[in-house]
Specification:
The chain is of the alpha/beta class. It contains eight helices and eleven strands. It has a single domain, classed as Spore Coat Polysaccharide Biosynthesis Protein SpsA, Chain A.
Length: 310
Amino acid sequence: MKPTLLVLAAGMGSRYGGLKQMDGLGPSGETIIDYSIYDAVQAGFGKVVYVVREHFREAFEQSVRQKYNGVRCPDGEPLEFLFVTQELDKIPEGFALNPERTKPWGTAHAVLMAQEVIHEPFAVINGDDYYGKASFRILAEWLREHGQSEGVYSIVGFKLDHTLSESGGVSRGICAYDGDLHLTDVAEHLDIKKEADGVVRGDNSLTGERVDLDGEALCSMNMWGFTPDYFAKSAEIFQTFLEANANELKKEYYIPYAVDRMIRLGIGKCDVLSTPSHWFGVTFKEDRPAVVEKFKEFAEQGVYPTPLYK
């Protein structure tokens, strides 16, 4: 069974701008998400599910189907596309939405929106991050190996040094794991950057203390591997989350929180996978020229065809 790729794109509406294309960064106007789809197909994924917002779903879906029309998997089968929406009012019965809330419910809530259309092992990625070919191969292999498992999930860890921006400090979740490479914690750090003395430092989000960080440490870039049983477990945890936070205006239900609860409740464990790939994205507007140059280099080196889709 081919794994599915779940793309979190609900937060892209403001950049999408209705019928306008997302920011073209590749030599032929390719977006970051175009490269992720390409790499996923080459790694053996057979279906792509997008989580979007209702107000730009029609335009987004039309553009996607136009762009990827005719794309086939390595075995010759056509690549399947599905679209689901994330909205504030999509919460379980019995909970009332605070009418003043405008903030989305978070990434774990977004994943739950795909519960009815995903019945196979699946990966979760952000729509505006470049993860690299090796990352998709590593995760696809793990998903194929664990397709019949329950309560076993995975996270792709990137070396911290491979995720920094030259334009400013970034926020990253540093992964802690045991001797069996099972995740034990994800510690959020803010304003991470390599300082003048060459040392990488960041602010611990819990203590506020500025601390030295290991550039070789593995961090989360929101690239996860799940089996379908994740949905039921996450839905139960979301219920508990809402019991405490339904009236809050800003609290969000994030994937690391859901996975952490599963680990602590003893109903799930999470393998930490390591990738040699370098992450990049446009965290700051100043990052854009470097990303454009990187995709140009990829094309010149033959890493990707140009145009990516014909």
